[in-house]
Amino acid sequence: MTSYDVIVIGGGHAGCEAASAAARLGARTALVTHKKETIGVMSCNPAIGGLGKGHLVREIDALDGLMGRVADAAGIQFRLLNRRKGPAVRGPRTQADRRLYREAMQREIDAIENLDVIEGDAFDLLTDDETVAGVIMKDGRVFRAAAVVLTTGTFLKGLIHVGDRKIPAGRVGEAPSVGLSETLCRFGLRLGRLKTGTPARLDGRTIDWDRVGRQGPDEDPVPFSFMTDTILNRQIECGVTRTTDATHKIIADNIHRSAMYSGQIEGVGPRYCPSIEDKIVRFGERDGHQIFLEPEGLDDDTIYPNGISTSLPEDVQAAFIRTIPGLESVAILQPGYAIEYDHVDPRELQLSLSVRKMPGLFLAGQINGTTGYEEAGAQGLVAGLNAALAAMGREPFVFSRTDSYIGVMIDDLTSRGITEPYRMFTSRAEYRLSLRADNADMRLTPAGIELGCVGEERRTRFGSWKGAYEEGRTLLRSLSITPNEGARHGLKLNQDGQRRTAFDILAFPDQTIEGLRPLWPQLEAIDPRVSGALQIDAAYAVYMERQAADIAGIRREESATIPDDFDYSDLPGLSNELKQKLAQQRPRNLAQAMKVDGMTPAAVSLLLSWLRRQERRAQRVAGQAAQ
Amino acid sequence: MQITDTIYALSSGALPAGVAVIRISGPATADVIGRLCGALPQPRRAALRTIRTRNGEILDSGLVIYFPGPASFTGEDCCELQVHGGRAVVHAILDALAGFEGLRHAEAGEFSRRAFQNGKLDLVEVEGLADLITAETEMQRRLAIEQSGGGQSALYQGWARRLTHARAMIEAELDFADEDDIPGSVSETIWSDMAKLAGEIDAHIDQAGLAEIIRDGLKIVIAGEPNAGKSSLLNALAKRDIAIVTEIAGTTRDVLSVDLSLAGFSVKLYDTAGLRETDELVEREGIRRAREVIGHADLILLLSEKPGDFVWNEPVGNDVPVIRVATKIDRNGANWAPGQADLFLSTKTGDGIADLLEELKAHLPDLAGRTSLAMPSRKRHVDCLKQASAALARSLAVEGLDIQAEQLRMASDALGRITGRVDVENLLDVIFSEFCVGK
Ligand SMILES: Cc1cc2nc3c(=O)[nH]c(=O)nc-3n(C[C@H](O)[C@H](O)[C@H](O)COP(=O)(O)OP(=O)(O)OC[C@H]3O[C@@H](n4cnc5c(N)ncnc54)[C@H](O)[C@@H]3O)c2cc1C
Ligand SMILES: Nc1nc2c(ncn2[C@@H]2O[C@H](COP(=O)(O)OP(=O)(O)O)[C@@H](O)[C@H]2O)c(=O)[nH]1
Ligand SMILES: [Mg+2]
Hints:
The complex is a heterodimer.
Chain A: E1 3-9, H1 13-24, E2 29-33, E3 47-49, H2 53-62, H3 67-74, E4 75-81, E5 91-96, H4 98-111, E6 115-119, E7 122-128, E8 131-137, E9 142-150, E10 159-162, E11 165-168, H5 179-186, E12 191-198, E13 201-203, E14 213-215, E15 238-242, H6 245-253, H7 276-283, E16 290-297, E17 300-306, H8 314-321, E18 332-334, E19 337-344, E20 361-363, H9 373-391, H10 405-416, H11 440-451, H12 456-478, E21 480-481, H13 483-488, E22 500-501, H14 502-505, H15 513-516, H16 528-559, H17 576-585, H18 590-593, H19 601-626
Parallel strand pairs in A: 1-2, 1-9, 2-6, 9-20
Antiparallel strand pairs in A: 3-5, 4-5, 7-8, 8-9, 10-11, 10-19, 12-19, 13-17, 13-18, 14-15, 15-16, 16-17, 21-22
Helix pairs in contact in A: 1-9, 2-9, 2-11, 3-4, 6-8, 12-16
Chain B: E1 6-10, E2 17-25, H1 29-37, E3 47-52, E4 58-67, E5 78-85, H2 87-98, E6 103-105, H3 110-117, H4 123-134, H5 138-148, H6 151-175, H7 186-205, H8 208-216, E7 218-224, H9 230-238, E8 256-262, E9 265-271, H10 281-295, E10 299-304, E11 322-326, H11 329-332, E12 343-344, H12 353-362, H13 379-397, H14 401-419, H15 424-434
Parallel strand pairs in B: 1-6, 7-9, 7-10, 10-11, 11-12
Antiparallel strand pairs in B: 1-2, 2-5, 3-4, 4-5, 8-9
Helix pairs in contact in B: 4-5, 6-7, 6-14, 6-15, 7-13, 13-14
The complex binds flavin-adenine dinucleotide, guanosine-5'-diphosphate and magnesium ion (MG).
C-alpha cells in the first residue's frame, strides 16, 4: 500500500494550493482528484481577484503559493480597481483565459517533485483510532496518510437545477461526490446546504458587438505576483450591455418556473451574487441591470455574460437573453444553472482548518461554506501548510486578523459560522489600512521564510527587495528640513518650527519622492522598485501607529489560546449560562471568547487568569523535564 | 443541565414593611408558581393566591402576577409575588424557592443584566435604571426616566443608524466599485450629513454640565475670611448643627458638606476653612482642601462681616458666579451701605435667608419649556461622544476614501460603545438592502 505524509482530495483552487503548500514544506504529498485534465478548472466566471479577493491572491503569493503566478500567466484584462480611492482598498483583478489558467496550473502541479497526482473518486476516509489515516477510493484502492485535506468544492451531494430539471452533478458534466458526504455525517460533523449559480454561455460570433459598450484593460497592467515582472499576454476588452424592460417582463412572467422561486432549492444563496431572478424580484423597478460580456479566452469564442446567473428553464433563458441589446440573435452554448451542495459548518474547525472532532482531517474551500476561487485558494494554503506540519509533528501555523485577510476570513468562519456563502470584502478587515495588497509580501513573506514554505528564488528576490526598501526608508528618515528652509524650496509646511524628515513630508498629499529630488539629490539612490512602497508607507505611517496599539492588544488576546478540551465547568465564578455558551462555541483564544454573547469583563479576567496559571504550570513542568 | 438558571430575590426595600415583592425570572418560573400557588394566573393579571410549601404548609397569601417572556422585564418568564412584608414570612418564602432544583438567589443587578442580555435594555437604559432607583430629587428622577425609558438611547441609536448608513454607502463605494448600481456621488450628501451629525453630537456634549448638575447636584462653596460666619450659614441652611461654630477664627479645618433639595434640584453645599496665611499645620491642610473644592464649584458664596473684607483672588472658571454676602447684620447692619454686598443676612435672626434661597434658585438650570432631558449624564457617555465627534471631524478633514472610512469606523465604534455594538454584517445588510450588487 502506498503511503504519504499528506493526501489532498480535490484538484480545484483549494486543492492545488493545499497540495503545493504541503509539498513546499517537504511533505510527501498526493493530490487525489477525479480527472487530471480538470485540475485548475474555473467553475464559474473567468476572472481572478477583485476587491478583497485581490488581497487574498497577493497573500497566497507572498507565501509562495500558486494562484498569483498562474493568474499572471493567464490574465487577459488586468485592472486595478479603486485606483483613486486609496491604496488600502485597491484590488487587483484580471479576466483569465480559461485554457491558459488550467494549463498554467497543471504545469505548476506537474513541476512539484514530491507530489503525485492520483486520478479517481475518493469515496471514504480510512480511520485509525478516531484519527483520519488515509483515503479509500471508489475502485477499492487505499492510500494511507498522516493527514488528509478535503477540498471537494461544490461536489458534495451536488445537485444542478435548470428550471424544474434536476441533475446530480458537482459541476456541469461532472459526477457529484456522494460517499464523502456520508463519511462526514458519520464523523458527527454538522452539515448545511448552500446554493450558487452560473449564467448561460454565449457564442461570441453571434453577438452584435456594435450594439454594446466596451470596457478596456489598464494601460499598464499590475501583476499579482511578486515574482512576475511583466504581463506578456495580449490584453483584451470586454463588452457592456444592460437588461431591458422586455427582459424584466419575461423573467417576471416566468418567475414561478425558476428553480429558485418554485421551492425546489432549499440551499441558501449569496446576497452579493444574486441571480437575475433575485435582481428582478428585489429591485425590479430599476432601468436595467448591467451585464459584462467577458471572453473566456484569447482564442475562444465563448462569452461569459457576467450578471445574469439563473436557474430558469432553457426556453425562458433563451427568450430573455435575446431581449438584451446586442444579444438579439445570440446562440446559447450552455444554459445557466443553479447548484446546491453540502458544506460543513466551519465552526467545526480550528484556526489551522483541522477538524476538531477528527484529528488528521483538514477542510478547505467551498466545502467550508465560502465562495470564490480566491477564498478557496487561501484556505487551501492554510490547510496544506498545517496538514504538512501535523504530519511532521510540528506546531500549527495560524494566521491572525491583524496580519492578513486570510486571518480575518478564517477567524470569521471558525468563530461565527456562516448563514450564506462567505465572500471576502475589504470591510470585513478592521485593520484594513494595515492589510494592503501592496504590502502583502512585507507582511507575510518573512514568516513564510521562517516556516520553510518559501522557495529559494523568492527568498533571494525578497531579500534584495527588502534590503533596498530599508535602505530607502533609512535615507528618507535621515534627511530633514525646517518649515523655513522648506518655504525657500516652495514647500508649504506648517510654520511651527518643527523639523520634518523626508519620510514625514511624503505623508502630505501630492508629495512624491520624485518631487523631493531637487531638494535632496541623494534621493536618486532610492531603488525605483521600492519607491512606490515607501511612498505609501509614508502616507499611512500615522494611521499605522494609531492601529499598532490596537493590534498589539488583539495579538495578546489571540495568543492566549484556550485548549480545545477545556472544561468550563471547572472554572469557578462563571454563571452556568456562560459556561454553557462557552462550551458550545469553544472559542479558540481569548479574543474570540470576548466576542461570545454575555461575556463580562469579570468573566474575561477569570478566564485569563486561569490560562496564565496553566501556562506557568506548563513552563514549570517543561523546566523540570529539562533538568 | 438547563442553559439558564431561574433566579429569585426580594425586590422591595428593607424588612419589615407592609408589603414585600419577590421577583422570580427564568424558564422554571411557571413550574415553580404552579407548585407554590396552584394554578398559574392569567398573564399580567393580579390574582390572590395562597402560597404553600411543597408539603402543603401555608406560608402566606398574596397577589401573584405572571409575565410570560419575552414580554417581561428580563425578557424571560417572570413572576412577582406581593406578600406580607414580615421578616419571617419573606424568609420562609425565599427558603421555599431555594428548595427547588435549578433555582438560585439572584446576584446583585442580575435581573437588569438579563434584561440587557436579552435585548430588553441597552447599556444606557441599565444605567438609567440604576439612577432611577437611587434618584432623590425630582430632576434626578426626570433625568433617570429619560435614560431608562430609552429616550437617550433612541437619540444615540438614531445617530448610530445615520453613521451606519453613511458607512454602508462609503463601504459600498469601496467594496463594490466595479458595480454600476453603486452611485459614486452619494458621498456628497453623506459627508454633509456627517458634518451635521458632528455638530449635533457637540451640542449634546455641551449639555453634559447640566446633566452633571442634575445628577450630582449644584456645587455651592461657602468661602470667606475666618469667622465670617460660614459654618453658621451652613448650619442655618441645613437646619441642623453640622459644623462646629465658635468665635475662634480657624475653627473649621476640613471641608464639610451637606445635600439640600432646592426647587427639585439637588444642591451640595460646602463649608470650608477660612482662607488666610497660617503656619498651623492642620489649618494649612484645611485651606488646601478648601481651594480644591473651590476649583470645582458651580457657585461661590463669599461671606464677610465688614464691607472691606471681600477679597477674592482664587482662580475659578469665568462662568462661576461669586455672590457677595454680608453676614451678622443683626449686630453690624449699620456698617453696610446698599450695593456694598449682593445679599445681607443674619443667621441669628434668619433675616435675609429667604432672599439667599431665592437668589440660589435663580442660579439653578432653567429647564422650563424643555420637553426632553436626553443629555449625557455620565463621564463614560461624554468620553465616548467626544471620541465619536473627534473621529467625525477627522473624517471630514483627511484625504483618501479609505482613510475617511477608517475615521467613520472609529466614530461608530465609539458611539457603539455607549449602547451596544455595530458589526460589519450590519453594514453589509444595509448595502444589500439598498443596492442590487453582484454580477
Ligand atoms: C455553478 C457555479 C457557480 C459559481 N458561481 C460563483 C460566483 O458567481 N462567484 C464566485 O465567487 N464563485 C462562484 N463559484 C464558486 C467557485 O467556483 C468556487 O468557490 C471555487 O471553485 C471553489 O474551489 P474549491 O477548490 O473549493 O472547489 P472546486 O473548484 O469545486 O474543486 C473541487 C475539485 O474536487 C474534485 N473532487 C470533488 N470530489 C472529489 C472526490 N470525491 N474525489 C476526487 N476528487 C473530487 C473535483 O473534481 C474538483 O476538481 C461557483 C461555482 C459553481 C460550480
Ligand atoms: N450675631 C451674630 N453672630 C454670628 C452670626 N453668624 C455667626 N456668628 C458668630 O460668629 C462667630 C464665627 O462664626 P463661624 O460660623 O464659626 O464663622 P466661620 O469661621 O466663617 O465658619 C461665631 O461666634 C458665631 O456665633 C450672626 O448672624 N449674627
Ligand atoms: Mg467655620
